[in-house]
Amino acid sequence: MLPVVRFLLFPFALLYGGIVRLRNYLYDCEVFSVYRAPVPVICVGNLSVGGTGKTPQVEYLARLLQPRRIAILSRGYKRATKGFVLADERPSATSLGDEPFQYTQSLPGVVVAVCEKRAEGIQRLLRLFPDLEVILLDDAFQHRAVKASAYLLLTDYSRPFTKDYLLPLGRLREPKTGARRAQAVVVTKCPNISKEEQQSIRAEIRRYAGPTTPVFFSQVVYAPPVPIGRGNTLGKKLILVTGIANATPLVRHLQHAGHELLCHFEWEDHAAVTPEKINEVVAQYQAYQDRAISIVMTQKDAVKWQDSALEPLWNQLPVFFLPITNAFAPQEPSFDAILKGWVLPPGSDFIH
């Protein structure tokens, strides 16, 4: 960003920061009402706008906590519905949003719902499913109307909140001191980093989160490609389709795996998938006149392509998606052990 632009935006960042600090203070003092659920509620979120890997982290938590009765509650960003919506037998990205719909496909047995007002959403869930044992709040770190049992803060290794600035000067939704609410911090999308670098990053984060806050380091792990169209083997030549915040790690992974990227349709994060967009991709595939080419995308993109109205446009082509999960760097106590303390009373056994 040019210095003159930074200078012009600085007063707006100060004003925005003042408003957010006042809002947080009023919630901290409970001048604004705060709801506490009767079951453990784990909030997963970040301080910045954009992707920090919340979806694979929420999926990791849900798998770790099973076979407990778990619900995931999300806002349902860019969905076509309003209010509380429960994922039924025929969920869709249109009614739930991209990530909640992905949860329904990746996590059978987990209750998934969306609601802008998380307190209302939790209460509705508990009335519908009184046997719920844990509720995961997706992207709700700034949703102060609910007091969660524990807060998990995520920050991207390549874009750490410690080196960022408040909107509109930077990408932070609230001041860095908001990290004090976190019971743990995960630095996501890490490359292989040394113990010394980990210690340096940990010290920087603890300046804001607190001197004893656990800080973990996770890597993105790509699972084998999943076919959703014709064919079972991903080709060496690829057409890549992404509608995510940062596609660079995926591009690097595919290139390191020996694939040649012929074309990359890089749409904005949460972009709607329309027949026109799919037809554009299909036309590009057909223009190459090479049947060894495959079309590949993230799972987040694939759930939108699998809409019943869109599927006939592409289901005879070699279309694949790459599932991802998290892998944590070795550390004591481990991330799993920390999580155990959040959801179980002292002396309880942790069941995988």
Architecture overview:
- By secondary structure, the chain is α/β, with parallel strands linked by helices.
- It folds into two domains: about 200 residues, P-loop containing nucleotide triphosphate hydrolases (Rossmann fold), CATH 3.40.50; about 100 residues, Rossmann fold.
- The chain is built from ten helices and 14 strands.
- The strands form two sheets. Strands 3-4-2-5-1-6-7-8-14 form a nine-stranded mixed β-sheet, with helices on both faces.
- Strand 12, helix 9 and strand 13 form a beta-alpha-beta unit.
- Helix 4 crosses helix 9.
- The longest helix is centred in the first third of the chain and has 26 residues.
- The model has no long low-confidence stretch (mean pLDDT about 90).
SSE blueprint:
Blueprint: H1 3-28, E1 41-46, H2 54-65, E2 70-74, E3 85-86, H3 93-96, H4 98-106, E4 111-114, H5 118-128, E5 134-138, E6 150-156, E7 184-188, H6 195-209, E8 215-222, E9 226-227, E10 237-242, H7 248-256, E11 260-266, H8 275-288, E12 294-298, H9 299-305, E13 319-322, E14 324-328, H10 335-343
Parallel strand pairs: 1-5, 1-6, 2-4, 2-5, 6-7, 7-8, 10-11, 10-12, 12-13
Antiparallel strand pairs: 3-4, 8-14, 9-13
Helix pairs in contact: 4-9
Please sum up the structure shown.
With 352 residues, the protein is an alpha/beta fold.
How many H/I helices?
A: 10
What is the strand tally? Answer: 14
**Beta fraction of the residues?**
15-25%
List the domain count as a whole number.
Answer: 2
Helix content: 25-40%
Radius of gyration: 21 Å
**What is the string of SSEs from the N terminus onward?**
HEHEEHHEHEEEHEEEHEHEHEEH
Distance between the termini: 48 Å
The stretches of 5 or more residues where confidence is low (pLDDT under 50) are none
Residue-averaged pLDDT, rounded? 92
Give me the CATH architecture of the largest domain, please: 3-Layer(aba) Sandwich
Fourth-tier CATH superfamily name of the largest domain: P-loop containing nucleotide triphosphate hydrolases
CATH topology of the largest domain: Rossmann fold
| Spatial arrangement of strands, main beta sheet | 3-4-2-5-1-6-7-8-14
Query: What's the quaternary structure here?
Result: single chain
CATH class of the largest domain: Alpha Beta
How is the biggest beta sheet arranged?
Answer: 9 strands, mixed
Q: Using the alpha-carbon principal axes, give the shape.
A: globular
How would you classify the helix and strand content by structural class?
Answer: alpha/beta
